[in-house]
Fold these 4 entries.
Entry 1:
Amino acid sequence: MYMDDAYLREWTAKVLESVGEKVVLDRTAFYPRGGGQPSDTGKINEDGEEYNVLEVKKENGRIVHILDRTGPSRGEEVRCTLDWDRRYTLMRMHTAAHLLSALINKRTGAMITGNQLGTEKSRIDFSLEEYSPELLASIVKEANELISKGAEVKVYYLPREEALRIPGIVKLADKLPPNVSRLRIVEIEGIDTQADGGTHVKNIREIGNIVVLKTENKGKNNRRLYFGLEKA
Ligand SMILES: [Zn+2]
């Protein structure tokens, strides 16, 4: 459910499978680790019992929740709650990464070669002929100006063929799932359009202020930018 409503943080679900501390639910908004975004954490409650969700991952196309102990039985109704502070920070970080990637790509033509989001700091790697910390600083400045103006972030689906005609739709080279006919699109209005499976804020204003923590030069295909966020 995180795909269609990133702000959903509490819901009820039914346990479809339960093996040891692993459970699969009929509905979930827990984000499974992937695409550089770490998994959500939170709680599952059932009949007075509380379980901590330590990690969430995709296994054979199913979303598996890993609990701190043996989970509730199959068929049980449970109440799920996200650790919202963590998730919301990751949404802000993820949207900031899109904005920065778009500006890096626009200003230098660089491709993004990797990224890792975190709650304290996030990292973007990109390929670039000429490495310039000053250029990165000016890109972050531009990003912060756009954030203060605000822009809507829209999520929708497009047929694969149509989506692939959008310039720059895949900045993370070879990260597109090969066998899907409809692609989920995340668009920062007027700034960037990306095929993406992650969670984002509704308006870039929610990102707050981006701060450069560190830049690193690990070779032509591996310029790195570490950034953090100050509260909006
Ligand atoms: Zn993304």
Note: Residues 35, 94, 98, 194, 196, 198 surround zinc ion (CB under 6 Å).
Entry 2:
Amino acid sequence: MQTSGLHKLIKVINLTDSTYILQIEKNGMQFEAGQHILLGKENDPDQREYSIYSGINDEHLEVLIKEVTDGSVSKHLKNLEPGELLNVEGPLGFFGLNKEKIKSGKFLFVASGTGIAPFHSMIKSYPGLDYKILHGIRTCNEAYGKEDYSKESYLRCASREADCDFEGRVTDYIIQNQFDKDTICYFCGNFKMIKEAMDLLEKKGIPGTQLHAEVYF
Ligand SMILES: Cc1cc2nc3c(=O)[nH]c(=O)nc-3n(C[C@H](O)[C@H](O)[C@H](O)COP(=O)(O)OP(=O)(O)OC[C@H]3O[C@@H](n4cnc5c(N)ncnc54)[C@H](O)[C@@H]3O)c2cc1C
């Protein structure tokens, strides 16, 4: 059920100079892994969408945010103090796993940057999931939360550093590799990456009905 109300900030966890997790009181909110919330400071009409990063059964609500240079909301949320109140609206959206496929499906998650957030929630929510993540990052330190994924299922595709798992963009990895036709694919992050990756996988024979996307910007 969608609700709107004030939630207390528990803490800000800084992962890199520009990327952080907000841990927020859940106030009983129930959601599907992959959904997002609208988030803003108390009494501030300026709100933005953020995918839920935590799992459905976790004690707290978490979001993973990249501070955007010249952005308004992402910059201010980072400087909040524990105990301050946030306006939270949600859960919102339909970017979720098909329940019937959770046990039997083979999933490919393709993310750029903080676009890994909904996949983190899916993996934490359904520990037995058969998945592979292609995470598009610039440098290895942007591999947020890599310890939460099994080593063989998480592939860092770094465009500006050679010693991650794969040197190049996620689209380069897709071009160079084969994928089973029954793979169910989810994409999240920037539009350009999503469009290119979807086109490539469709050309490799994966039906359009198995391609699902959430565009951040
Ligand atoms: C459904 C949905 C879920 C989202 N989930 C997340 C999430 O989990 N984590 C997250 O960090 N962001 C997420 N976003 C993006 C987020 O809503 C904001 O757009 C972002 O935080 C910038 O807000 P801002 O007010 O700081 O900047 P604004 O002042 O709103 O925008 C400044 C500029 O930055 C661009 N921009 C937005 N996001 C990025 C980015 N990540 N990198 C570079 N440029 C960007 C915008 O297109 C705009 O041109 C999501 C967006 C949508 C639509």
Note: The pocket of flavin-adenine dinucleotide is lined by residues 36, 48-51, 63-66, 68, 70-75, 93, 113-114, 117, 214, 216-217 (CB under 6 Å).
Entry 3:
Amino acid sequence: MDQLASILEGYVEQKRQKLTALSEEIWRYAEVGYQEFQSAAALERCLEEEGFSVEKGVAGIPTAFVARYGQGKPVIGFLGEFDALFDLSQQAGNWQRASFENGNAGHGCGHNQLGVGSLAAAMAVKEYMKDHGLAGTVAYFGCPAEEDGSGKMYMAKAGVFDELDGAFTWHPSSKNAVDGSSSLACICVLYRFHGRATHAAGQPHLGRSALDACELMNVGVNYLREHMIQEARVHYAYRDAGGGAPNVVQDHAALYYFIRAPKVSQAMELRERVDNCARGAALMTGTTLEITTTDGLCDFIPNQTLSALLQRGMEEIGAPRFSQADQALAARFQEGYPAEELKAKNESYEKEYGPQIAAQLAGKALMDIILPLKFDPAASPGSTDVGDVSYVCPTVQLNMATYAIGTPGHSWQLTAQGGCSIGHEGMLAAAKVLAYAGVRAMEDPKVLEQAKEEYQKATGGKYICPVPLDLEPMLDGVK
Ligand SMILES: [Zn+2]
């Protein structure tokens, strides 16, 4: 561990109790997107105690906020999330299904740790600035509704990230690795058809079926698949099938589409073609059509220059220091996962990182090594609103182990592990690494310049908003 790593380690360890208690507090609130009032307030309170000035309710979103310390350039930002997921409540540390206090929502993606880990990084950088006279500004961005609501897209659209020279974040994971792969851009669109109801046997010729329009639209899109790029992903669900009576011609029906592609510009183009399938279906059926964009987000572009700083930080700080008890508890969780899934996981490590690393990991429930830095040109098939930040400034993220290998994403098992010491260790390790990269970036203007050049080349230096500019976030969650 170099000198900077041990200084930052000290700052974070000094506040260990406060930070883990805050993570547990947000874990207990388990508030879903745009409803994170108690969680945001707890984070804001902690940042104020730590000497940050907090701007609340940014971008017109009550639970979005920015906290800053210092002044002038460079400006380094840490992104925090804190929203939970419906139906994933679970007792902390319990490997058998048992809901927590009759709860409903739970932190099945670990965003309680994500929010507090990034806060701890901002706090450690602030301490370093104070003690070592490092100039500039460190900011923490409270980003609501990552799971369903694209909080960061609305914040990017409002210019909230414009001040940044670099953005750093992380995600709870089963592995310790810098995130070197991009993610898919995604646009979410509701297609509502309106027709004319009649007796389906008596006067069918007078009816105009909105349900027929939905079916024809889907047929059109499914034929379109042959002529779209391989990496695109288009999926749909019926939001309204027009009612349950076969003898009534359905005068209303609606489809909800997610349209994904490796680049936001590609997703926007493809969306036009999907819109045309809907228009064609309306024309064929004599119905009218209402198209509403509900949401959207950009692809994530990992900045390689700043990723190298994260990797250095990971190697200096090291993997989370899990105790024997943590390893034993994680192994209990693994007992509930399908054996073939665990085998496939190990094989995927072997394929990606070679037999040596696979051998090191064999039989281990929690990852205790740092994986080598890898940039994958192919986008991983999910989507995240961190992508929108990566179109505003150089952006990077890392993964740190906070749960057992083989734990499914968005699961109650993940909720359980994020509320106990397994999650705490990963969170504190992530905080130290993020702080390390943040300080290294702030003290070397050349690194930030190089990161910016790379960002300009990748994006043209311009934020491409995937949704209409006047679209407002759906704060009540109804789409
Ligand atoms: Zn997540």
Note: Residues 3-182+299-459 form a domain with the Aminopeptidase fold (CATH 3.40.630.10).
Entry 4:
Amino acid sequence: MHVVVVGSGMAGLTCALALQAGGADVTVLEGGQRLGGRARTVRSAFQHGRYVESGAEWIDTDHHRMRGLLDRYGLTLQGVGQEWTTIRRMLFRDGRMHAVDEIRSLDPSVDEQLGRLEDAFERIADGIDDPARPDLHPDAAHHDERSVADVAAEVDLGELASLFARRNSQGEFAAEQREVSSLFVAQQRAQMRVHGIEGTVRAHRLEGGLDGLVQRLAADLVPGTVRLGETVRRVQWDDDGVQVHTDLGVHVGAHVVLACSLVPLRSVQFTPELPVPLARAIRELGYGTVTKTALQFESRRWPEGYATTSLPAQRVYEPTVDQRDEESDSGVLMAYAGGDGGRKLAVLDEPARIAAVADDLRAMYDLTEAPIGAFSRAWSNEPRYGGSYAAYGPGQVTAHWDVLRRPCGPIRLAGEAVATWTGYLEGAVESGERAAGEILGTV
Ligand SMILES: Cc1cc2nc3c(=O)[nH]c(=O)nc-3n(C[C@H](O)[C@H](O)[C@H](O)COP(=O)(O)OP(=O)(O)OC[C@H]3O[C@@H](n4cnc5c(N)ncnc54)[C@H](O)[C@@H]3O)c2cc1C
């Protein structure tokens, strides 16, 4: 049995490995010239051996498939990790950096207000029996049509809590609160409950960079499996199989797994056309925007830990906090800008984005040194991604969740957008392994 897999991100690679382990003959078509997709470590922009993740960065406590892969390849997590908290962690406002304790004195009830918002999602999550089917919530239509902004308006947040809640949506979903379905947020909370994680999640970076994992996965594939520079333009299908057309030729298979963002699929021609609900879901599903901009300095002149700011940089942290050596005290500061702020930065070219973030960093940390390295990536500008990761918008869980996860003849979707762990590396792996299991008849 020959299977064509489109995309060499974590979903495509893990799908291809599982298919090959089950005896299938696999071709992976990758439009770009590198493997890994949104797992993309940047080294060349930096000095002193520092490296930074331009896409996925964190592996959470409950990401068991990812942790299983690290164990398989003897890879280790870095440092003590980071706790995911809504108040993250210092606050730069009115020209001054406030330490975490001072934030509470600015508004003593800020935790209680944010707790009310979180409780509202937890109550919706109570109605989700199976996080793989949030669309079966008894009141699904009602919660799905309400956005996170609608729920936030009801719990009545003060100015400070509103800023933290907005930054949380821009960071976690890469989208504004109005763009995210409250049922989608509740689905994510329900998913965490299944894994026994309620409240705080801890997350770690991969020691040595995520590209190390990508290389190991690729090395386990049968040689010649991946064909780089083959962008899929057309998929011709019937009950017997598929012909997948790229600029360089045609690949025939019994099945195709489309393991990529839905945005590039919008310009792939399907013959015959896909059924209307599936075509609509592919066309409409919401995607967040993240612009990550990182600047390296010769020495670390900033306090450790996340800082939230009302400036365009949104949230600033040091991704190199655990990269320490005798040779140099150099470190990198990263600005993670999502939603409207991410889109605003994305319209600038890379040097202008770096300059804009440099201004913010100077204001926040009184930095006087010039940076010695920098890069910025606006994921929404990249045609093979078209955004950062899926964010189901109001009405989209009930309309699209199930249809995106069902096979259509020989065509299956994989990738984070169609996983239970939507938006994560874990989801990419989950979806890739599921698609392979369905084809092999093992799930
Ligand atoms: C800024 C950012 C931060 C993130 N942070 C985290 C994090 O901290 N933790 C976490 O777990 N996840 C994070 N994620 C999400 C994570 O990166 C993704 O969930 C995961 O990498 C997606 O993998 P995938 O295989 O589904 O898709 P992709 O990685 O997008 O792979 C799809 C591949 O398909 C290729 N392709 C697309 N169209 C075509 C075509 N027509 N023909 C051929 N090839 C094509 C693409 O070039 C790409 O290589 C982040 C993502 C971003 C963008």
Note: The chain is about 35% helix and 20% strand.
